[in-house]
Write a structure and sequence with these properties.
- This protein has 11 helices and 16 strands.
- It has 349 residues and is α/β, with parallel strands linked by helices.
- It folds into 2 domains: 193 residues, Medium-chain alcohol dehydrogenases, catalytic domain (Quinone Oxidoreductase, Chain A, domain 1, Alpha-Beta Complex), CATH 3.90.180; 131 residues, NAD(P)-binding Rossmann-like Domain (Rossmann fold), CATH 3.40.50.
- Strands 3, 4, 5, 8, 15 and 16 form a 6-stranded mixed beta sheet that branches. The protein has a 6-stranded parallel beta sheet with strand order 11-10-9-12-13-14.
- A hairpin with an 8-residue loop joins strand 1 and strand 2.
- Helix 4 crosses helix 5.
- The two termini are 21 Å apart.
- The structure holds NADP nicotinamide-adenine-dinucleotide phosphate (NAP) and zinc ion.
- The site of zinc ion has 4 residues, from loops.
- NADP nicotinamide-adenine-dinucleotide phosphate (NAP) binds next to helix 1, helix 4 and helix 5.
Length: 349
């Protein structure tokens, strides 16, 4: 074991603060990574404040990790010291269940999340990327295309894959009309991917001030979702809608915008249940589903796609000391469009 610096919260109501955590020594199949940037996902905030239940304190959030390999175990074949590497929301799974065999580790019943999961090797809970370094089994380490800006690449590890995966699953392709609800971290990646896949992209936002940005990011149309006339103009027309909203909202209003057999997928995970009008689904045989992150192979596919198409997140780079302020800004939908922590700032603590 060795000690490394981190930012952690001691309770649902305490701010993140500097601390020291233990990491395991590098085992045979492990890669040790010096963390260079870590994105701030709204899930970090939900978890730190125990909005979903089940948070164990102290918690070190962070699952959008990019960095440089500093050590490898004797059996590691994919990485060497000095390589760029990335880690997303998962750090382990059982490798043997049908989900793992299908490359869908995100559904493995024994999957280990990057933070706030029981740590099978050290005991206690896993600690995330708001820290100097992390040790991860090489099968859960991703390769970064060399052309991508590192600060902007970090958010691909969660916001990227969480929007890429359902769009692939629901066949977002050229000629499809696709809606993205909420222009935050996930939403702006959803817009970039839907545009890159050739779809006609419509952004639904509560923030009129984001209209120009939405077009720049790849939207063909922008709807201010509080304007019922604008909403009604799109009734029954969407093939697919991706809902990324982190708070309570009227999802039935979006279901009614789907065409026959259209699908709306929730990736946003509000604290409280959403009310669904049965008729909005019945009339039109529409479907409502959800989607969690993506498997390791698909995450690599997404990163490679981003390398080829030069796609990264639009980030505001902040020092770790501004993490608490960033959380408050997330709650006000005031992020353009992902905070990425420059982890060099942790060395000053
Ligand atoms: P974010 O950056 O805070 O973006 C959320 C966006 O939702 C806001 O920017 C805002 O966009 C819109 N919004 C916020 N409050 C709203 C309200 N009351 N009514 C309507 N719209 C509202 O958050 P994020 O990091 O993208 O995460 C979004 C959600 O996805 C979170 O719940 C997070 O936990 C979840 N998530 C799920 C997965 C998964 O695997 N399924 C993975 C990562 C994150 P506008 O200003 O454009 O309205
Ligand atoms: Zn996330």
């Amino acid at each position: 074991m060795y000690n490394t610096k981190a930012y952690s919260a001691g309770s649902a109501t305490s701010p993140l603060a500097s601390s020291t955590i233990a990491r395991r020594d590098t085992n045979e199949h492990d890669v040790q990574i010096e963390i260079l940037y870590c994105g701030i996902c709204h899930s970090d905030l939900h978890m730190v404040r125990n909005e979903w239940g089940g948070t164990v304190y102290p918690i070190v959030p962070g699952h959008e990790i990019v960095g440089r390999v500093t050590k490898v175990g004797a059996a590691v074949t994919k990485y060497k010291v000095g390589d760029l590497a990335a880690v997303g929301c998962m750090v382990d799974s059982d490798h043997t269940c049908p989900e793992c065999k299908a490359g869908l580790e995100q559904f493995c019943p024994n999957m280990t999340l990057t933070f706030n999961s029981p740590d099978k090797q050290l005991g206690g809970m896993t600690y995330g990327g708001y820290s100097d370094s992390i040790v991860v089994d090489e099968s859960f380490v991703l390769r970064l295309p060399p052309n991508l800006d590192l600060a902007g690449a970090a958010p691909l590890l969660c916001a990227g894959i969480t929007t890429y995966s359902p769009m692939r699953h629901w066949d977002v392709t050229e000629g499809k009309k696709v809606g993205v609800v909420g222009l935050g971290g996930l939403g702006h990646m959803g817009v970039k991917f839907a545009h890159a896949f050739g779809a006609h992209v419509v952004v639904f936002t509560t923030s009129p001030g984001k209209k120009d940005d939405a077009h720049r990011l790849g939207a063909d149309e922008v709807v201010i979702s509080r304007n019922t006339d604008e909403m009604a103009g799109h009734a029954g027309s969407f093939d697919f809608i991706l809902d990324t909203v982190a708070a309570d909202h009227d999802i039935s209003a979006y279901i009614s915008l789907l065409r026959r057999d259209g699908n709306i997928t929730l990736v946003g995970a509000p604290e409280k249940p959403l009310a669904v009008s049965a008729f909005s689904l019945i009339l039109g045989r529409r479907s409502l589903s959800g989607s969690p992150i993506g498997g390791i192979a698909e995450t690599q596919e997404m990163l490679d796609f981003c390398g080829t198409h030069n796609i990264t997140a639009d980030v505001e780079v902040i020092p770790i000391q501004k993490a608490n302020e960033a959380y408050e800004r997330l709650l006000k939908s005031d992020v353009k469009y992902r905070f990425s922590i420059d982890m060099a700032s942790l060395k000053a603590e």
